[in-house]
Amino acid sequence: MTAVFDSLDDLRAAVGADLGPTGWLTVDAAAVAGFCRATGVPVPEGAVVPDYLVLSLSNLVMPELIAVPAASMGVNYGTGEVRFPAPVPTGSRLRGRAVLAACDDVGGGVQTTIRITLEVEGRPDPACVVDALSRWLA
Hints:
Blueprint: E1 3-4, H1 8-13, E2 18-19, E3 25-26, H2 29-39, H3 51-65, E4 66-67, E5 73-83, E6 93-106, E7 109-120, E8 128-137
Parallel strand pairs: 1-4
Antiparallel strand pairs: 2-6, 3-6, 5-8, 6-7, 7-8
């Protein structure tokens, strides 16, 4: 279920809040092949999903984690720390869990740090942990 923040003050007050989980999504061979074609990365041997494809899924799950209708615009500002604790076999199902780790005032709005953990169904270690930076403008 998406966490909805109706004001930037509500967002500021929610630091530490759990956001997630999202629904499951399957990363199949077609997704891997499409990513590799689009980026020029060779298709990996051993049926493993490329790390940067896994990282890109953090943007796919973000709208399922958080909505800020009070903001005139939300902007992907980049990332802080990114880790890949475990490889992801092709065909795996992943989902996102997140925590609103920080919310800092910036010109025109706030910048959030949302720590997204991409979990792999049936595996103890996550595929990716990323500190996603977003700007929410008033």
